[in-house]
Amino acid sequence: MIDAFLNAITPFNIGLALLGVFLGTIIGALPGLSATMAVAVLVPFTFSMEPASGLIALGAVYTGAIYGGAYAAILVNTPGTPAAIATALDGYPMAKRGDGDLAVTISCFASAFGGLVGAVALLVLAPPLAIIALKFGPVEYFWLAIFGLSLIAVLSKGATVKGLIGGAVGLGLSTIGSAVIGGDVRYTFGTPQLLGGIHIIPALIGLYCVPVLLNMVSTKEAHIERANTKNSSRIGEALTSIWNSKFNLVRSSVIGTVIGILPAAGGAVAGLVAYSEARRSSKHKEEFGKGAVDGVIASESANSATVGGGFVPTLVLGIPGTPPDAIILGALMVQGIRVGPRLFTEQADIVYTFIFGLIIATLLMIPVGLIIGKTAFKTISSIPKSVLVPAIGVLIMIGSFAVEQNSTHVIMMVLLGLFAWLALHFGFEPSPIVLGLILGPIAEQGFVQGYLIGNASGNLMGEFFGRPISIAIIGFTLLTLLWPIWSERKSKKLKEDQIHE
Amino acid sequence: MNLNRRLFAKILASASLLFASTLVPFAAQAADYPERDVTYVIPYNPGGESDVTARMQQKFFKELTGHNLIILNKPGAGGATAWAQLNGFKADGYTIMGTIVPHIILQPAMKEVGYQTEDITNVFFFHYTPDAIIVNAESEFKTLQDLVDFASANPGAVTMGGSGTNTANHLAAEIVSGLTSTVTTYIPFKGSAPAITALLGNQIKSVMSYTTQGVKAGDQVRSLAVATEKRHPALPDVPTFRELGINHVGGAYRGVAVPKGTPEDIQLELAKILAEINANPEFQKLMLEAGYSVIDVSHEQIPTFMGQKAKTYAGAIKQLKAKQ
Amino acid sequence: MNSPFQKDMWPALILIGVGTYGLYQAVSMSTFGAIFPQFAAGGMILGGLILVARVLFNKLETAKYAGELKRPLILISILLFWAVSFPLLGFIISSVISGLLAMLTALQEKIPLKSYAYQLGGILALILVIDQLFGNLLNVPLP
What we know:
The complex is a heterotrimer.
Chain A: H1 2-8, H2 11-29, H3 35-46, H4 51-76, H5 85-96, H6 100-134, H7 138-155, H8 160-174, E1 177-178, E2 185-186, H9 200-216, H10 235-244, H11 246-261, H12 267-280, H13 293-317, H14 323-335, H15 343-346, H16 348-382, H17 385-402, H18 407-425, H19 430-456, H20 460-465, H21 468-500
Antiparallel strand pairs in A: 1-2
Helix pairs in contact in A: 1-16, 2-4, 2-16, 3-4, 3-14, 4-5, 4-6, 4-13, 4-14, 4-16, 5-6, 5-13, 6-10, 6-11, 6-13, 6-16, 7-8, 7-12, 7-19, 7-21, 8-19, 9-17, 9-18, 9-19, 11-12, 11-13, 12-13, 17-18
Chain B: H1 2-32, E1 38-42, H2 49-65, E2 69-73, H3 80-85, E3 95-101, H4 103-110, E4 121-136, H5 144-153, E5 159-163, H6 168-180, E6 185-189, H7 192-200, E7 206-210, H8 211-217, E8 221-226, E9 251-258, H9 264-279, H10 281-290, E10 293-297, H11 302-323
Parallel strand pairs in B: 1-2, 1-3, 5-6, 5-7
Antiparallel strand pairs in B: 3-9, 4-7, 4-8, 4-9, 4-10
Chain C: H1 9-26, H2 31-57, H3 70-89, H4 91-106, H5 113-137
Helix pairs in contact in C: 1-2, 3-4, 4-5
């Protein structure tokens, strides 16, 4: 292990990590350009490098991009990458009231912490974690998806019906295309373009960024408050907030790591889950959505933790933990790296060098992030809308196209954006739709596969309800759903008792 | 009249010279192909079998022609997105696309995918990944016969995972079930990797996949049979289906296609280059070690090849359609 | 009972409509393939019905929409045009046209000619940079 560490701190690799984080942050920060796209586009460069160096470069870009997404989320309300969705929920209100620089600095530290937790988990716990991941069969994924969907109800307190409708719409949208199970071609109106269904990245870009653009041109006022020219980037203030919220920070990082380990979930889900958990256990629930620091901390630490966590199933099982991992996995295969548990024994030097490189990249994020953060805030708040709008327009066009070089995706993105803008007018938030879109396929595949397997062994009920992990997940779901009701009742009762006294 | 004859002869001579000179650039064209880099569109993401083998070809292509083979990944709908766009590219031989049989036969037969099998102009098939039935190394099934016996005694109880519905894996599972007169429950997964993972986690009893997956998973799995004529060098202990009395040889055949209308001589030249790469012992070694089986289906053999394959799949396709 | 002509009635009706279409299509699907579409469609219909009930029976609350509608509608048409012309006209041309139009849409006040030129220049520069970056450096073929 020591030589792996030494390998990781060679000037070349450190240089790669620095460059990677820098590039990644900038790409992630630009609305419309997602982490997935950043990794996808930079992969060909790594083919000429040594496997470990290539991995470090990709990991650094990935880390930077996930973090960079916070900038666009906070400053422009257009999550730069899906993982930053939950960050925008409170980050943007913070920016509107002039605390944008604080939000940016907080995300920097929160992301670094989360990323470290994820990377350390990868380093120390990868093989055993992978074995646990193996125990997750189709049924477990189904219940996990149900849990994720139940978050919709929690997140949209106050507009629960509309939130659930959004979820149903998202679920419906996820069925478009040719199904993995059953092979039906659903809702494509006979067009081959829709065969692949709605791709998640253009969908997210459209659902979140386009309404913001449209809203920008509807009012005259400036986009966000100009920074009051303070010198410090409010580091001290940021650190204090984080310390006050340390439990939240740790919990969110763990949530992020765990969700990252489960294949196919990714930063967006992690951010939203951590955010809702933070809100649920917060003593100031009402602040969430209006600029609660805790929300930003939760979301950013969780989504950065998915970077490290996501590599666990990717490296050990060959199943991508998050969408960018899918691309990195491909790059690894091309380099001839045999993923699997034996990777940690046979090609251990490559893996450990990479993990150390990842840790270094995460640490490098702090200085890079702070510097970019200061300039980003100043620049974005001083760019007039008339330049901002077309610029973001260009970026979202490219961002949707470049993921799979498919121009149909671009049209999809705009149409979904129009839909989201109209929906917002009627009180429908995009987050439930997004959750439905992401979790729909997971739930469906899990359900049908589980059904088929259970049927084959003649034990359908046992298959769905008898497995230990499933039971735990179901229990947790019920807890999440019923807790708010129960605690409200409890506090109401307390209030009544007090009044009666 | 002498003048007329001489004039006529002159005209004839110059006409033939003119005609011959136009032929020269054509001949020269084919002989010079490729004159610049060629774009190789792969209908799948990096890391998959189509992509990895294409990258193996890259190196040798550069050696042979001095020009680069630039790989462009255009995934979507199991390959259909790219195949539907094939004929939209310029037919000058500088854009080529990977193809797979049975996919290009199966997909249009099962549903509306935006192209027909005849729309794909195949130039050369250079390898195939033989089907293989794989079980967990700790599984109760030590031989294929064990699996078949269990399946006969318990119809439907054997879960066999594979990549997707109405795909090569699904087709192979149907074919083998038919040949052994057993009923297995096919469980579709989103790709080979999730299926293998489910196998490793003991969620399912077996997997219908390819030799390459068996090689990749190593000691954690046991391959029960491979669909080749002779045992595969990368899996020497695994019997072939034929040895066990099941006449199934096949898998996913991968090749290269060009847009409709590409000049015939360019197609032949391309086929020649691909065949030369195939003949290279270094290339063969790379492929065999990973579990691929190198074969040559040359340009002339393609129509017969496609016809044969379509006939082989016809029965299973009917079965699959009936189940829809 | 409130009058049925409320703002919320629209989404309710659309939901019921889309949900019904979804169910109708699901009839022609295989057993397994139909489960989730039916579920989602059913959810939409149910949600739509609940919304209708709410509109008719609940206390009315009107949410005000701040800002004009004209410009956003113009912008979304520009974006649509941009997306459609993207493969047809190529990245640079479609982006220059659309970018210019977008800029004009976003311009709320008259600005001096010099700033006008600067802003235009900035956008054009961005387009060129991205084109070069993606086309040459990153090997991503833009139309």
